[in-house]
Amino acid sequence: MKKLKSWPVWMLMGVIVVALLAVGATKDSGPRTQGDRIDAISKRLACPTCDGESVYVSRASAAEAIRTQVARDVASGKLTDNQIIAGIARTFNAQVLLVPRATGLDSLVWVLPIAALVCSVVGLAMAFRRWKRQNLGDASAQDIALVERLLAQDPTDDENV
Prior knowledge:
Number of helices: 6
CATH architecture of the domain at 31-99: Orthogonal Bundle
Low-confidence stretches: none
CATH superfamily of the domain at 31-99: Cytochrome C biogenesis protein
Largest sheet: none
Order of helices and strands: HHHHHH
Shape: elongated
Helix content: 55-70%
Strand content: under 5%
CATH class of the domain at 31-99: Mainly Alpha
Structural class: mainly alpha
């Protein structure tokens, strides 16, 4: 009976962990230098002409143009990092985002796999518990007596097996 009461506690702890991870992933680290901001933004953008490289790493002309645009936007001081990224994503139809946005529909990319994993584990645990109870209910009194007798036997005594 005690195990049955503890599963809500585990579920609550799982929800708290997911919430803390979501807050930690979206927390701003505070003011940075312009160079740090340019690097951070460039690391979040994919090169539109390269295969799997960020704008920060790539030396392609398209990546250079994006880095130059990011540097101009940062130097102007009028836009936040997210606004700069959103402007570049609009230009390239969101095909340059390496990391999905943490708002709106894009946040589901982060939340749904975790929720599916938690639900799967809970579902499996409940199914195993139900199967265990059903299997014990199918056992006859003779089956249970036979198992108890065999468990009580001396393992070195092979004569009764």
